[in-house]
Amino acid sequence: MTAADGLHASLFGESGVAECLSDRARLQAILDVEVALAEAEAQVGVIPAAAVAPIRQAARADLYDRSVLVREAPRAGNIAIPLIEQLTRLVASIDLEASRYVHWGATSQDVLDTSLVLQLRAAAPRLDEHLDRAAAAAAEHARGYRLTPIAGRTWLQQATPTTFGLKAAGWLDALERARRHADDAFSEARVLQFGGASGTLAALGANALAVSRALANRLELELPPAPWHAHRDRFAHLACTLGVITGTLGKIARDVALLSQTEVREAYAGEAGGSSTMPHKRNPVAAGVAIAATVRVPGLVSSMLSAMPQEHERGLGGWQAEWDVVPQILLLTAGAARAVADALNALVVDAARMRNNLDITHGMTQAEAIVIALGPHLGKRQAHALVEAACARAAAEARALADVLAEDAVVTGVMTRQAIEQCLAPDAYLGAADEFVERILSTWKRT
Amino acid sequence: MTAADGLHASLFGESGVAECLSDRARLQAILDVEVALAEAEAQVGVIPAAAVAPIRQAARADLYDRSVLVREAPRAGNIAIPLIEQLTRLVASIDLEASRYVHWGATSQDVLDTSLVLQLRAAAPRLDEHLDRAAAAAAEHARGYRLTPIAGRTWLQQATPTTFGLKAAGWLDALERARRHADDAFSEARVLQFGGASGTLAALGANALAVSRALANRLELELPPAPWHAHRDRFAHLACTLGVITGTLGKIARDVALLSQTEVREAYAGEAGGSSTMPHKRNPVAAGVAIAATVRVPGLVSSMLSAMPQEHERGLGGWQAEWDVVPQILLLTAGAARAVADALNALVVDAARMRNNLDITHGMTQAEAIVIALGPHLGKRQAHALVEAACARAAAEARALADVLAEDAVVTGVMTRQAIEQCLAPDAYLGAADEFVERILSTWKRT
Amino acid sequence: MTAADGLHASLFGESGVAECLSDRARLQAILDVEVALAEAEAQVGVIPAAAVAPIRQAARADLYDRSVLVREAPRAGNIAIPLIEQLTRLVASIDLEASRYVHWGATSQDVLDTSLVLQLRAAAPRLDEHLDRAAAAAAEHARGYRLTPIAGRTWLQQATPTTFGLKAAGWLDALERARRHADDAFSEARVLQFGGASGTLAALGANALAVSRALANRLELELPPAPWHAHRDRFAHLACTLGVITGTLGKIARDVALLSQTEVREAYAGEAGGSSTMPHKRNPVAAGVAIAATVRVPGLVSSMLSAMPQEHERGLGGWQAEWDVVPQILLLTAGAARAVADALNALVVDAARMRNNLDITHGMTQAEAIVIALGPHLGKRQAHALVEAACARAAAEARALADVLAEDAVVTGVMTRQAIEQCLAPDAYLGAADEFVERILSTWKRT
Amino acid sequence: MTAADGLHASLFGESGVAECLSDRARLQAILDVEVALAEAEAQVGVIPAAAVAPIRQAARADLYDRSVLVREAPRAGNIAIPLIEQLTRLVASIDLEASRYVHWGATSQDVLDTSLVLQLRAAAPRLDEHLDRAAAAAAEHARGYRLTPIAGRTWLQQATPTTFGLKAAGWLDALERARRHADDAFSEARVLQFGGASGTLAALGANALAVSRALANRLELELPPAPWHAHRDRFAHLACTLGVITGTLGKIARDVALLSQTEVREAYAGEAGGSSTMPHKRNPVAAGVAIAATVRVPGLVSSMLSAMPQEHERGLGGWQAEWDVVPQILLLTAGAARAVADALNALVVDAARMRNNLDITHGMTQAEAIVIALGPHLGKRQAHALVEAACARAAAEARALADVLAEDAVVTGVMTRQAIEQCLAPDAYLGAADEFVERILSTWKRT
């Protein structure tokens, strides 16, 4: 149910992240927290130093009977309780005295939250790596195609031209914001949970803060000012951040998928998938994976937000809802990042096709240039109306816009035929596209 | 990732449903569709009859290498393609000729959609069984406590009294609506998907409809007027219906959890979970499971709705997003149903505590009865104002409302002290509660 | 905040529905319930017959001071309380005695829920009308273009051909399911809410059911077995149904938008919107409205589901959350239906362009026909591999698939050049498309 | 539809924010952007300086005919186009020449996005003010009740004691994180949108960046490296941040509502709402408003994330979906902040009732203290089992836990009766609660 062990983990997820979030990794992370707890408590003198080694020895996930955990979970309400029971028995079989100090002073939520933090920390670099790969590929496209005209498209209609380089630079800029936000949110979530039954660490008496500090040090986690059992904003914020990143990846994937359409074919995925029935097809599988993630992650993020109003010191239902949702979000986001990185790296760009597609409208995508040229003479509104009428006529009669304009005395009173044609050349109407690419690339550290 | 094989499947899910939705069951269901397809095509004469037996022989999920599926899925874009490749090879090893007819005329989506329909059909009775168990328990409480006063509570404040029987009858009524809706939605979704590459079944030529009919018959599914690859409303509608059912279960679970509070304790779960640190606690684990489902399912439902606008004949991302989401919704809903059925069956009801809690306000919960009694004499607004003032005074002075009212000449001008006290007895102000219970029980078939 | 009075109501909404859901309509609907309540209570003899006329006289929304309601709402927690206070004062100014019987025995939620039911009932026919308009237009396209080939498209790639008629028939079939579901859900929600303070109607004593029946009769609403203050499944189910309908509308709108792309241009909206800067553009505004609805409605539906677990007899937060969400969902769905009906009715279909686009791949979209033709001779897998290789070569060398195939001895050993070309003609590979159109049209009542 | 002008704006929203987000404010903000654009272009020399004054003169929202905007919006696809048309006409009536330079070089999305940024900037301080008020009240409670024992509650069951001060300090800490995140997200969103038709500013030729800089300066907004029409992560991130803040507010509101229950009554809202039928009731209206927000906002946030994959240079449906959703989220978050600030400031705390409620379990909430005390002697597991049994017996026999323990020879072998009782005193088992309060207060700037 955590998303990391199923048939689809390789399709929608990312292998490294899936490994960090697998059931086995979850159990090991809980056991790691128990070991660190025993070490910290021995260090402070709360439990005997001799108790640590047996606990450490028993804390290997593969020693545990998964079927017992699964059977006991519904009674206990979580998997930590039966796992700790098994751990205690196992420690007892090594050293009865040591078994008395297993999980000393902690509550289930302490080890479940903290172990999730450890899993997230382990997985984070893989997400970053793919975002970085995607950004590097986008940067390459931005540099390589900074002067390559392509139809700008708004409302799925060709608008004035832009460059493929600027499109790719837009992706790059968004990916860099994504990486920065991921970094911040993972950092903020890298915090110890340790409060005992009601968040007071009463069971540790005067040693509460000393043990907390030692535990945070051993796990290399931030020590928060106080336990935060029912305050879930850090995890929610991380989930949201991953949601925004998925949205950015989905935007790029959608662009790629639209450019790959049979009728557009300006860029397409070299690695694309086959079809069981249509040998000619090259399906944009990677883009599909990222788009699927943008369908799934928003709902999961809303679940994280809905889970937030948790009752009193520890909640009923809200907290439990997070257990599978946080890993699913991360796995889907990492899968989308992997897919987009793959797609951008394997992207075959067809600049000639871009140029050809710009000619579909016989010059109308550059119509605005004429409006601008006529504006100072006729006023923007009149210029707009005149060009709108000329476009309508060109479209109706399937003629080049330049030809229609050249017949209009109002236009020729202001512009020569040559000026009209210069105006309508895509390369002549790219505005600040190149400067924008430069601004984005110059802030990208590896340019 | 389908939710059915993970560590938490036993906690948040339901074992029978989890089995129907496991990775293994998914593979088997796809293989079952391939077998039925071969049978139908042989029956119509599209493929040789001799091809069927080898295909049937090879169609056992445990013959397949899961790791190959997982490895190939990202290239193919789904698990059906590599599974069919393995199937074809396996059939070829039995009978080379037969292997030519594997998956004949079908597309991946045909077998993925239809196999999901089969899985849903297999799982549906388990959900119904738990809803039925929950309803039966609610009916028992409704009958058993039809005259037992309990504080009505609105805004989490005690309001006028009601009966525990009516509360339980409200649960019953909602559960019966839930069952009826589940029945309708599962029935509507029990429909064949079969359209080939673009939904025309062109590969089957003139036999298209004959094969479709034969296939629907063999699988005991409805034959729709046409393939529906990119029209997902039936699945979306089923997902929504499960979402509403989860909401109803969550409402019951929340009531149970609130009644179980240490300070209220009017009813509590006998089967409740222990705590790793607090031996006195009896956690309402089952209620928590259902509440967690109500946190998770709404987001999953919104994903199903967001997935609906699928492009052209078969979509890019939207369809793929459904694969794990539909099973997750069903598993969580079934888990919530199981949990609520368990909770209601194990519910310990404390009628005495209900009565005691009604006395907390010293009669104020029945204050409305006084308003009603005074109304015809003073008008509703004045009566309301008078009683509001009396309540404020009773609260401020911590006295019984009857005593305060008995000092008010306006009141005593209309009612005797005895009439005031009768008015303020909870049992005397239960309105049509019993009739409402009767109306609900009488529509419940097993009463 | 109810969505019906804002600047965007005409863009994203529907004027008739907006009127039914306006602030003014909401106030009037509450007042209508108050009048019907007085009439029912007078009929049963609970209040004097003479009280009815003054209440009826005062129950006109335009007599009320909206600013007072807005000011008082935060104190009262809803708008019904201050509205009833104003109503009572107004009645008192007409007939002091009558004012004593305003809102007799009811609670705020009774009139808020029931008035919302009345508003929904009033608005429902407008939604149906637009769905019907959309269905009629889809039926017309299905009939008119039943034999018109168009590229089937999966993963946004051209697949085997289908017909524009079948595409439109698929829309029609889904729209008809949408209408049927809307009808069911609106019917189910047409139910009286009447329970008084805690759902027992205690204030009405023995007359509770008689008044309930009379009130349901007057309002022409179903009388439920019991009040359902905290059981919200009917509204949630309606919200979900509208969510599914919006999804269906979004699927159609997305198809239209994709067909309208400058590079595809097989169909486009005649009524399309202009651009402030690009005179040549014809933006698919109506499609955009419907797609925007599919982005917004899923989240709103999830809010309705999240709102369901309402506490005890009347909830704290969940119910209140519904007030603006239900109207928003309906308004957006109706707006999407209006937009899709407009788009389909104004759709300009370019069959020649459909045919031209089919030629982009030089026959590859019909490659499956060759696989099918070769299959019986070579086996499906080998045939698939052969054709896949031929397609790759045709694509790489930009040649017609027929030419490449005609050079392959394995192919020509089985098929003549003419047979190859016949196989690759789009019209020859439409399978059961026409039968599917017929099946759908024949179930459509007005064919 | 923007949420700010409806009947419920005062209940669920916040007056100052509603004003910033009203239809009127939206129109004015668009007009403000047009004025700043003209000024910037005149400054750079793109348009004549004389054009500015007439544009400025015409740019007053109350000069515009709202009904025309509403009527034209569906044709144009947004309200900016008809507004700019009206503006141009109005300027023309003042100075025909100036009217030629209205909206020069910009596209609708430039002014719609930038004007929304201006509205958000105007509204942000009001949210911060309420969060600050809430934090100050929480700090006051944290200080005032730092040693006041209250039952810690987990799973809605009494657990070991904590202090009301620590509960309030937890609120404070979360509110401070909320403020910090709000500040960051609003800052990041304070960025100019200016790209013209396709994001290249081609219409401005070589002056593109100079005008951009001048415009950003005039509006006091950040100049991004490039236009970001289809990259919505900044708005999505802001929406998410507001979603997390709403979740934090909902958690506090839920705590307050639960503490206010008639049966708990440890703290309650002094400003609570009345009831139309139950004069004794004090409804926690403010808490209800915040909880309603936590039901509504998660779905709205998911819409913002779903809207992100916007097509190419400007999207179709996704962008349009944001227009009403961003304001709704902010309005609901601000309303929740206002409500929680009100609730915490008006909170009546009953420390005696807290102490009384701790006695409900006859000492069992402190049972853990006995486990801890016995642990070193018996081992944690045995100690746990012994105390669990003693609790069960105490509960079954309705006796004090101390009495039951005092009869157990194993216990008395280790502890005296007096030691048992000391162990079971709530004040003696508060752990590091006070230190945690101190740590939180010390990071709060105004302590």
Class derived from helix and strand content of chain A: mainly alpha
**How many strands, which pairing sense, and closed or not: the largest β-sheet of chain A?**
2 strands, antiparallel
- Give me the side-by-side strand order of the main sheet of chain A: 1-2
Would you list the SSEs of chain A in sequence order as H and E? HHHHHHHHEEHHHEHHEHHHHHHH
Helix content of chain A: 55-70%
Q: Tell me, what's the shape of chain A?
A: elongated
Query: pLDDT average of chain A, as an integer?
Result: 93
C-alpha Rg of chain A (nearest Å) = 30 Å
Biggest interface: B-C, 111 and 111 residues
Number-wise, the strands of chain A total 4
Distance between the termini of chain A: 42 Å
What oligomeric state best describes the polypeptide chains here? homotetramer
Q: Enumerate the spans of chain A where pLDDT stays under 50 for 5 or more consecutive residues.
A: none
Strand content of chain A: under 5%
What does this structure look like?
- The structure is a homotetramer of 447-residue chains.
- The radius of gyration of chain A is 30 Å and the shape is elongated.
- Chain A starts with 8 loop residues before the first helix and ends with a helix.
- The first copy, chain A, is mainly α.
- Helix content of chain A is 65%, strand content 4%.
- In chain A, the strands form 2 sheets. The first copy, chain A, has a two-stranded antiparallel sheet. A two-stranded antiparallel sheet of chain A has the order 3-4.
- Chain A has 20 helices and 4 strands.
- In chain A, helix 8 (108-144) runs antiparallel to helix 9 (164-189).
- In chain A, 71% of the residues are buried.
- Chains in contact: A-B, A-C, A-D, B-C, B-D, C-D.
- At the B-C interface, helix 7, strand 1, strand 2, helix 9 and helix 10 of B face helix 7, strand 1, strand 2, helix 9 and helix 10 of C.
